[in-house]
Specification:
Protein name: Exostosin GT47 domain-containing protein
Organism: Manihot esculenta
Number of helices: 18
Distance between the termini: 97 Å
Number of strands: 11
Pfam families: Exostosin_GT47
Number of domains: 2
Order of helices and strands: HHHEHHHEEHHHEEEHEHEHEHEEHHHHH
Strand content: 5-15%
Largest sheet: 6 strands, parallel
Membrane topology: Single-pass type II membrane protein
Strand order of the largest sheet: 2-1-3-4-5-6
Shape: globular
Radius of gyration: 28 Å
GO molecular function: glycosyltransferase activity
Length: 506
Amino acid sequence: MRSKLHITPSSRSRSPILLLTLSFLAISLLFFLFSLSSSQTRIQSPYLNPSLAFKPETSFLASLEHFLAEKAPRSSSTRDDTVIQVTDEEVTELDKEMYRKESERVSGNPYYPLEFPIRVYVYEMPRKFTYDLLWLFRNTYRETDNLTSNGSPVHRLIEQHSIDYWLWADLIAPESERLLKSVVRVHRQEEADLFYIPFFTTISFFLLEKQQCKALYREALKWVTDQPAWKRSGGRDHILPVHHPWSFKSVRRYMKNAIWLLPDMDSTGNWYKPGQVFLEKDLILPYVPNVDLCDARCLSKSESKRTTLLFFRGRLKRNAGGKIRAKLVSELSGADGVIIEEGTAGDGGKSAAQIGMRKSIFCLNPAGDTPSSARLFDAIVSGCIPVIISDELELPFEGILDYRKIALFVSSSDAMQPGWLLKFLKGIGAAQVREMRQKLGQYSRHFLYSSPAQPLGPEDLVWRMMAGKLVNIKLHTRRSQRVVKESRSICTCDCKRANFTGPNIV
């Protein structure tokens, strides 16, 4: 006989409360699950998950618009590292703290100083050196009549040399939005391996009046050299972007110990004075390409359309080492399968260069005013095999990349012999051409600046190359701190033999 359930008045009164409690718990559980789902969706953001199908922004103008709209302060209320007067005690105290941190790393890491990530302290300079210059560019780049003396669009030149923007924008981005593992920003100077100076030298050179620009250069010089970290090392662990060869010229000699980010070494001495630049200290960075990437699909589609043997479009008259261009034009003009055109880097020039490169097997790359030119990187991302005729050329990231796999190197003396160059190019077999073009498709990623910065992109390779310099930087910093005045002059590592083009080996 089943027992009956007796419901007393008190138990009936508790039932609604129990139901209400259970309902509340169910709603809370649903809300938690919804929140978790939303959180997971946010975590799957392409900025945070590089495995997702996501196309990073490679346009300087588009990236800058987003950066200024979302991240750039519009007022001068941001903190800066201004130093009115630095005492010897402050410099000594920083040195002690840096020594203490380095000692901890030596004791705790058997591989130190060969380690990643590199720790970089980014100076928070007054906005007249940073944000104000970016806003100036943004508000004036549509002025297409703003040209240099030789007819090149000023704002396009700034884009080609905008490496200072791409590196800085990545360094100051929130860690949750960054993809690079080779570098991390630190907020305490004593923890830093290197110090980054975020001054836009190219924008200021082109967009400010001459005297205004020189005055700003002097202010930047004083601001940086007044910092305790600069005084401690003499600037040897400071990174200075001076990617356009005309920029920062009036005060360079006072910052020659810093690590310069350059487009080339220019050992001819036309742009950099002897003892200012050398490979042991400085770093070569690629220009920002002026044409769009020809990806794997594009390379496949353009294969049958590459009917031009050799293509060149650019300024035909250059100074210094670039004078070989005029001689090559005279030698090659009218030859079968060769297209040589006069042109600049404006919108029309970009379209013409892109079409021409995608229809060509080889792209001629003679020296410009400096041994390098942006055309080399246009050719690489277009799948057009570069033919480099520049006896003094230094290349970006050559400690990591083997350019013999993607380019042909020809000495000026060989190129100037009548008929030699075309005979040489026609002798390159179809299998070798296909292999080199396939390598170009693989190498293109190393020359595309983007936001967010991509693993194995140029921003990443900068820090991988910097890692190889750290031991020497520390060596020369410490030697400079202990060498007495009466001793021999401190080694600067600026003795180097000229770089001459050797025989091509593929």
